[in-house]
Amino acid sequence: MIANARTRALGVACLAALLSSCGSNAQTTTPEDPVPTTLAITPSIVAFSFLTESRALLADIRDQNGGPFAATVTWSTSDAAVVSIDAAGVASAIGNGSATITATAAGLTSTLTIQVQQQPRVILAQQGDDQEAIAGRPLADTIIVRLTDLGGSSVEGVTVVFAPDATAGTVTVDTVVTGPDGLAATVWTLGSAFGPQSLVVTAGNLKTTLESFSRSETPIADLIFESSVSLSREDPTTRDSLIVTATVRNQGDLDTGGPFRVEARVGGVEVASEDVSGLDPDEEVQVQLQVPPLAAGAQTLELVLDPAGALPELIETNNQSSRSLTVLQQSQLSLGVPVTGLSASVGQELLFVLEVPPGAGDALDITITDPSPGQIDDLDLFVAQGSRPAFREDYLDCVSANPRTEEACQILSPGGTYHILLHAWEDDTGQFPTTGFSNVTLEATIGGAEPYDLDYTLIASFSSEQEAAIDRAVSYWQDIIRGGLTAVEGTQGLDDPCGLGQPALSSVDDMQLYVGLLPDTLQGVGGTLAAAGPCGLRPVTYLPYLGVARFDPVDLELMSSEEVYRVMLHEIGHTLGIGSTWALQGLLQDPSLDGNGDAIPGVQDTHFSGQGAREAFAAIAAGYSGLTVPVENQQPKGSGDSHWRESVFGTELMTFSLNASASLNPLSAVSIRSLEDLGYVVDVSQAEPFTLPAFSPSLVVAQTQVTIDLRYDVTPIPESAFGPKHRLRRVRR
């Protein structure tokens, strides 16, 4: 026990002494000082291919243990006319040859040999390009080209070959080696053929072409197409006339001496022509020919100058220009006459045109029916009034895109031309089966206008006064929206599409709204008063067919029935798309929040860009200098980017707060026409009178006195709201 104690004491003493002498076996070691041992230049291989090329070199000094050693490095070059080196070790190419770079530091030296050999990279036409001369005679200016490296310096000793085209004459010397200035020269004598001639210049794998023009000794006219043929539209149908445009120039040295003809041909047959009065030398004119509708399929449209050859010209073979195009089949649809047996493969489009006389009736119904129900065929219906859009996404007057073949569109107060597109849906994600469609029937009829049905279900208990206010708000929105929408078949197979414990629906026409209470955790005076938004969106159009509005019962008890009515109006507006689907439809510009609801620094002026709302705003906001329509950009997620700007609109219903008197919260024409921009048919006469406050936040606060705070009331749209066609979003152009 004593020996063990002594041993432990000795060990403690040794540790405390930190390597000092402990016992008879202890020894002292002294660290060895670092000594520079090696010096190497990196990179170890350097070569330059053009003058002024440079590379930073590094002197790597190591001590006897392989560790880095710091020391001052001196750089030098054996030939400054080939490679220069500065004090920082940057080597630069000065001339062709080789030079040895030496690094000296701490008594050590290292060397690196650098080779400089210019490589030609560009052939420059120094002189003689684009000349004119009489056929068979030499050009006035000698042809001179210059060879340069990548840095633009002349390259000496490069073999240059001059080779005229087969009918482009001769050169005095066809092979030249560049001198110190990088130049090579020859004299070009043109061939006997009239018109453009080419001289090909090569140097190794480099190549360029010089042009000249060979003229007749006797002045003569020469017509050419100065520009390619352009068409009034690139996707003509069998019912479209085309405006064909091209620019014609007289590149000869004599006027045409009179008129000449420009002719359009398809399959060698004339389809249109125009007589041009005449052109002076180097004068040009734009010609436009109206070509009648062409047959469906691939076509070649050819324009011909002076087709009868009546005009003497320098060159007779340059009077044609052509365009290939594909003509789409577009069929006529007549009211009350069904078109049967329609079929298309996946991704294919069928086009129709319908003429409806003004005053034909209250509504135009366009329907697609499938005599073989139960198949997984999927057809989408698109309708556009007026001129035919170039893109399917721009058929905006009506879209019916259910995951089925049977579709329907209704257009109120019809009249004029309607273009109808049937699209066999294709899934670009590969998640859903697609088969095209077959044996379907398309029909257009005149009938009665379908009202907009806003059905609602109370999924909580409300007082009789509150229920009356809710019903009144629903009725008002039904008066505002005039036309019915495409019915949605089922709720995408979800048992609880809005997360409220509600069963799936077999169909929805036009909107199903659920009205309930906020979760217990959000209830209480002064907290979130309401939350609303869509939970089911129609494919392509993003018009909601399911929505939910939930309220805090504690706050409701403190509100008058008029206030409940105004709050309900506000929240239904969000379920219909106001503020909730703006971004989806490309109508929210300069958003103030990122995807997580955080503020975006430097946002200039968040605004809603729909044309209808902008027109309504302009009618009440003379002198407003910002971008329109101004959207709230000073609030977080649930408030910002989803309401009209409080500091501008003040008392309007769709700002994020209600004001001292319920009568100070009108639903304006701006809000109603914003629904028109989303795709609804609306009755603007239902708008309540509204006067815009002065454009000053302080004045707005003084006028409005907020009593009901509706911040955070716009709920995110759940992913389940998007059907399989949500990638085919409506594109605003």
Task: Outline the structure in words.
With 733 residues, the protein is mostly beta strands. Helices cover 11% and strands 35% of the residues. The protein contains eight helices and 46 strands. The strands form 14 sheets. A five-stranded mixed beta sheet has the order 11-19-18-13-15, with no helix packed on it. Strand 8 and strand 9 form a beta hairpin. Helix 2 packs across helix 4 and helix 5 runs antiparallel to helix 7. The radius of gyration is 41 Å and the shape is flat. The N terminus and C terminus are likely disordered.
Discrete helix count: 8
- Largest sheet report: 5 strands, mixed
- Provide the residue-averaged pLDDT: 88
Radius of gyration: 41 Å
Rough shape? flat
- Spatial strand arrangement across the major sheet: 11-19-18-13-15
Helix fraction, binned, reads 10-25%
| Weakly predicted, low-confidence segments | 1-26, 696-704, 727-733
* Quaternary structure classification: single chain
Class by helix and strand content?
A: mainly beta
Roughly what fraction of the amino acids lie in strands? 35-45%
Report how far apart the termini are. 96 Å
Number of strands: 46
Task: For the structure shown, list the relevant keywords.
five-stranded mixed β-sheet, single chain, 733 residues, 8 helices, disordered C terminus, disordered N terminus, mainly beta, 11% helix
Topology record:
Layout: H1 2-17, E1 36-42, E2 47-48, E3 54-56, E4 58-63, E5 74-77, E6 83-85, E7 90-93, E8 97-105, E9 108-116, E10 122-127, E11 131-134, E12 143-148, E13 159-164, E14 170-171, E15 175-177, E16 183-186, E17 188-189, E18 195-203, E19 206-215, E20 223-225, E21 230-231, E22 242-250, E23 260-266, E24 269-276, E25 284-291, E26 297-305, E27 320-327, E28 330-333, E29 339-344, E30 349-356, E31 363-369, E32 379-385, E33 398-400, E34 407-412, E35 416-424, E36 437-447, E37 454-458, H2 464-480, E38 488-489, E39 507-508, E40 511-517, E41 530-537, E42 544-551, H3 553-557, H4 561-576, E43 588-589, E44 607-608, H5 611-618, H6 646-649, E45 657-659, H7 669-678, H8 697-704, E46 706-709
Parallel strand pairs: 2-9, 11-19, 28-30, 37-40, 40-42
Antiparallel strand pairs: 1-4, 3-7, 5-8, 6-7, 8-9, 10-12, 12-16, 13-15, 13-18, 14-17, 18-19, 20-22, 21-22, 22-25, 23-24, 23-26, 26-27, 29-36, 30-35, 31-34, 31-36, 32-33, 32-35, 38-39, 41-42, 43-44, 45-46
